[in-house]
Amino acid sequence: MSRSSASVTLGIIFGNWATVAGVGILVAFFVLSALAAWPPTYHLVARYPPDSLNFGAANAPPSLSHLFGTDREGRDVFARVVAALPIDIAIPFEVVGASVAIGLSLGTFAGYLGGWIEELVLRVADLFFAFPNIVLALTIAAILGSTQESLRVVYSELALIVVGWPFYTRLARAQVIMIKQMPFVRAAEASGLGKFRIVRTHVIPHLASVIAVYATLDMGTTLLLYSIFAFFGLGVAPPTPELGRMVYDGLSALPGNWWWSFFPGLVLMILALGFSLAGEGLRDVFDPRLRGQR
Amino acid sequence: MTDALKVSGLWVDYRTKSAWASAVRGVDLTVREGEVVGVVGESGSGKSSVALAIMKLLPANAKARGRVEVLGKDMVGLPGKDAHRYRGSGMTMIFQEPMTSLNPVMRVSEQLSEAVVSRAEHYKLEMFRYDSVAVPGGPDPRLSIPQGRPAPPPKEAIEALHQVRIGDPERAAAKYPHELSGGERQRVMIAMSFLLRPRVLVADEPTTALDVTTQAQVLSLLLGLSRDEGTAIIFVSHDILVVGQVAQRVAVMYAGEIVELGPTEAVLKNPLHPYTRGLIASIPSGFKGGKRIEQIPGAPPDIMRLPSGCKFNPRCKFAMDRCRAEETALKELEDDHFVACHLY
Amino acid sequence: MGLATYIARRVLFSFFVVIGELLIIFYLTNIAAPDPAVIWAGPESTKAQVALVALTYHLNSPWYVQFYYYIMNVFTGNWGTSPLYQQPVISLIEEYLPVTLELTIIAFVVKVGLEVALGVVSAMRPNGVVDNVIKVTYTTVRSAPPFLVALGFLLIFAYGTHTFPSSQPINPVLGATVPKFQFYNPIAGKVTGFWLIDNMPMLNSLLVGDWAAFSSAVSHAVLPIATLILFGFGGIVRLVKVSMLEVLDQDYVRTARAKGLRENAVILRHALRNSLLPAFTLMGLVFAGLVTGSLVVETVYSYYGLGYYVAQSLLTFDTPSLIGTLILITVVIIISNLVVDVGYGFLDPRTRVGY
User: Fold this and answer.
1) What is the DSSP letter of B306?
2) Which of C148, C166, C245, C285 should be substituted to probe chain A, the one whose Cβ sees the most A Cβ atoms within 10 Å?
3) pLDDT > 50? residue A292
């Protein structure tokens, strides 16, 4: 990227307050969760450990010492939210990363090779599109996880990948079909470059920007979806805190101790907002056609 | 005859990323009832902007200044929400693209019926009825204002399709636009203007997308409208020959200005402006033998970067120092024949 | 290709979808699982229950025998017994499905109407005040996890202002006394009830004319419906806005204006229909989203419908219920997609040739 186009890109990113806010939210959360994940720096972000029971301070409403209040066992809700961040942020990356990896390789080769391979991949992807994918993923995760509590989170991620890959396969294939027609790929073919080499050096770099946009947007969606899995007990085994599960656990305390549910849910929302604002900002950069159509 | 359309000092500015650019720069033009005036120019000369400004249909990023009087009412100063009162039976437009100018999800009959309803409403408001002009045939539209959604195609719609020589009008009316050919669609557009019986008709390259035989038929249909109904027609085209066939007067536009204006005969036989001469010289006239086709050197200027002085000077073989320094203005050289050039 | 052929092909494809789903599930429950009987009997079951389940589902036979019974049972409506409720899954579905259908269909209609209207309004003045308010609202709302919205409504309108009840589809006292709607069924040749109708709390009480029960059912449904509307809110708004802006630039809209139509007629008769076409293709997806959202919404509001039933099955690992409801939801989604695709053909005459 030349200097001027880089500065144009930066101009678009910072010219739009929503994108700035989105990137800001994400950076803040990444820093926060990195600090929380590493024991020596944990105390920098939260005053209390996430799992220390203190029945004397149980059911305290939000205050200066307990920003988000305390739960039934006197655990600090803020500390538990902070401790949950590393997991809740890592999971969308893992799920979307794996879905992209599978979809990109299947879609690229299906699109590039064509013929019956393409047909087969497309039909299978169609089949998956016809499933009610979230309900299917929940069922898969529940069946797999019913007997092994410690593996539930892994199974939930697997289930999300199972329903996540077809989208990227289709996206990659459509893009490849388009790129294949472009003069420079034609020229590369004419000069006798091998198919895999063309895909690696010409097609994948072109795809990267498009995939990056959708993956960022998808990250926020996956975060919310996974929170539904955690909500239904298909996430990390207790007592490890997790935002979705904290909301579910807090429902039983309504209408009194609303802060058990409310703050974890609010944090999820802000994080998802960060992904969606940043993703739409990225889209404005890469796809000028859609600029300003938020 | 009265003036149906009077354009004076019309400017059209477009907002671009950095600045405003003028596509039309001070155009004056008058069209009388029953008259056909041609507007000729290359793409980018501002002729379509003039057409859209008359109709008050400029895109959102464009702004008109000056006066456009349609039947004595200024369109430029008119609030947008009132424009519909003057469009339709007051003035209407035939567009260049027959493929996209009809609504793809409505049957032809529905779209024609709307024109009938629109005219009936205008007549009800007593806006555009001229007793001096005979309204041929058909029942008084005021007696048959369809209520609500126009359902069966009124007889008039079928009649209009018949008038524009569409074979089997009943069947064509029941069709969707995508089931018709380009020529048929353009005829439907013309049938629509027949149904509206407008006082002013703006035709923007109505024949460009058609083949030659269809072109001739469409042109004669338009002429019929002006002759029988007294409709004032502005005929916009890049093709000076086509304009020559229909127009009584021709205006030649270059870079947003009228550079030559006069009776068709005079302009075609005795072009005064070097640009008009270039346009006529570039008409292929193979069968007449002899001269090679001449081209005007260079390209029309970018409206963002207009040359100083006469806008045509960089392409003009007669360019003098004065042409580069001084703007031009229309001068009447012969009877009704105007030109904007420092040569005269 | 005619419409009938098109539908036949779609039905055939749908059949493969269901079979494909059954294959995935069968592989997970009967082959991949270390102890299939425990999966089918539920984690809380006793040894004797597990043994009984192994016998009823033929779990000790080779996999192809298991598969035969598995498939046959699905298609004969023998969907097993829920370990949680100790009732046949099929009768639980009969009870719960209508409740959720009623809820989601109402939410669907209101949601689509509202979002389309907002999309049109924001297209009228892009980047105006209204457009920006709508933009900010839906960007925020669609990032909210569904349970957070439900929770917020619950805290404000149920526990705060006491405007609406906090749980259940209908006041249980009124619900117990409402008679089931009956009508003369020409197929059976006698007066009967119909499960799909008489299990819908609002429709049933409306049809039998029990106004107290009806108003109770409606007030119980307000918060769940409002939450469902906000679930994934804004997708249609954005699509309608973008396509409306595109359509307003089209030549045929200029033609309509040139005809002298009022701006309202131009937008409602010419622009709206065309700009709804892209949004219409999303309708199947929107409905599927609402069915998914009902899982969370019905759980938070203890609204006893299919979503609540699925959620309870998830929380207690009630496998037969999960599989039964999954198949059912798949069929519902397939039917809604088919309706959307056939409907599209009627909206856009250009595609009718292409069936």
Assistant:
1) P
2) C148
3) no
